[in-house]
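hey
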């Protein structure tokens, strides 16, 4: 696929790259694999939800299996990788490649308080403290030995979803960059010309 941008489209795609660079510059980024409610909070540092996450990357990369004259933004989401093209997202996994148009992509950005049991990223904001085992009043449960204090960090989450089935959540160590990414996606959706005039595929 070879892209020939007009000035508006070039600016919109450049804004996406700039916003993605801000995300990539966070000290840590994770993909949320699963989350669930906590039934007994005193055994989970007072948390109301348990989250399973893995470190991920946000970077510029060439997309697999596609010859193109551009560099895409690649985001790892578990077994899949999202490649952000100018006109759509291609979703790569072991079973093949899917596509999500920007007009159907929903991007929700929110701040979340996360009880950090690993090392605190250098750019994270620590907003509180708790204990690995807490009593009803929120203090340390003295029945447990080695009941260490844990930091509560303010992280940013970006939820990407679509009616076609995309449902992924990214967590970032620094708040404030996700809104620019969401704005860049919205701008691409509004700026992109119709399919027939936007992309020419090489024979």
């Amino acid at each position: 696929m070879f892209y020939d941008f007009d000035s508006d489209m070039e600016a919109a795609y450049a804004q996406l790259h700039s916003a993605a660079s801000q995300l990539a510059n966070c000290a840590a980024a994770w993909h949320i694999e699963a989350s669930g409610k906590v039934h007994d909070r005193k055994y989970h540092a007072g948390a109301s939800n348990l989250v399973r996450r893995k470190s991920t990357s946000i970077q510029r990369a060439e997309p697999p299996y596609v010859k193109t004259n551009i560099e895409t933004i690649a985001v790892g989401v578990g077994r899949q990788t999202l490649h952000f093209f100018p006109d759509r997202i291609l979703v790569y996994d072991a079973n093949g490649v899917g596509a999500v148009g920007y007009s159907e992509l929903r991007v929700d950005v929110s701040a979340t308080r996360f009880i950090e049991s690993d090392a605190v990223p250098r750019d994270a904001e620590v907003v509180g403290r708790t204990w690995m085992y807490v009593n009803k009043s929120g203090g340390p449960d003295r029945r447990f030995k080695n009941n260490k204090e844990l930091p509560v960090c303010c992280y940013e989450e970006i939820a990407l979803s679509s009616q076609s089935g995309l449902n992924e959540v990214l967590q970032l160590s620094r708040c404030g960059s996700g809104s620019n990414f969401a704005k860049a996606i919205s701008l691409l959706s509004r700026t992109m010309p119709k399919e027939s005039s936007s992309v020419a595929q090489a024979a």
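The mean pLDDT is 85. The first strand starts at residue 2 and ends at 3.
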